[in-house]
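Q&A log
Question type: sequence-to-structure
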Amino acid sequence: MKYYTLFLFFVALNSYAQDNFIQGTITKNDNSMIVGEINYQDWKKMPNEIEFRVGSTVAVFKPQDIKAFEVENDKFISRLVTIDVTEQKLQKLNKTTEIKFEDKTVFLNVLAEGDVNLYEYYDNRTHYFAENDSHFMELINRITIGDNNSDIYENKKYIGQLRVFLNACPSVKVKSSLDYKRKELAALVNAYNICLSSKNDKAVYSKNLQAKTSYFYVTGGISFSSLTLSSPANTIQYFEGSQCVSPNLGLAYEFAFTKNRQKWSLYSELLYSSFKSTETSEESNSFRSYNPLKMDFKTVDLSLLFRYKFNKDNQVVTPFLNLGLGRSFVVSQNNTITENDLFDPSRTKDIPFEINSANFVFSVGGGADYKKLGFEIRYTVSDKLTKEVSDSSNTLSNLRLLVSYRLK
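Response status: OK
Response body:
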């Protein structure tokens, strides 16, 4: 049943991942603005259209339909561009490869704005565009093949283009080693815009390219554990199981999916816990009794959980749900069943009772984040703890109350 539930969760994950409507704005071609929700997919490849929702009405806009849009601190503009579409796959390149350009209207991601604007576009490769008051053009970076069809050359035309665009601030140098990468280009253009902003008071914008998508946590809490025994084996057939309360301590790492990172993440956790209890039984056979059963084992659980956050703008508390699988490793155990001779009470011996060194664990839980703190109630269960007989059904379940603290 638990694996069926996990399957349903993955189906729901795929369904939810298709839609990620969050607050955004659209600027129409007449410069009027509309506030609503945009189906934001944290695009790498620029979309040919976007979905915009106001209430229950969803409209689709292509680049030629609007002037710009903003969503999740990201800015996009619509622009007719002349883009370099020259073949760049090495296996298809030769010395006669034709240089090609194509005109089309696309969405561009805004990386920097000021005296010089920098835009990014990705189709099958990355293109960067620079703009000032008088010019708008692609920054060209192209590989070519030499006359013998073996030598590969890189045409870094963007170096010279940027030296022309950024020539009004002597302190900003365009080095020949400048890479054709978003962080390096954005940092350079932003430095130039800041340099000139003190002179002309022009507003400066720079996209945050350091958005954090992963976090480390320390976790702790308590477990209300229940061991259930159901086996015809002679040594444990008289016991039904027992309970205990124990502390937990661990570390966790959360990685937000690039797509829908405000809602979906993968939460991996390493959690130490222990189980210690004594169970007695009044039953016996004709010659012996087995009493008591002492359980004393410690585990480290490695869990991999999908986390869904009910994330909305400006909320202080963010509820979440967790569901996933893990592996519980027994790091130490000292479990015994005391065998008593009914004819000679002085004859007793402790029989070791071992559980499997590792078991699969199914987890489901929910909680909420508040600033750097997280609070969660989680239920875990693992079965087939022992190998007494093939039809044994011995389970360990835990109701855990956990508190986590997010590290910097």
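Response note: The mean pLDDT is 87.
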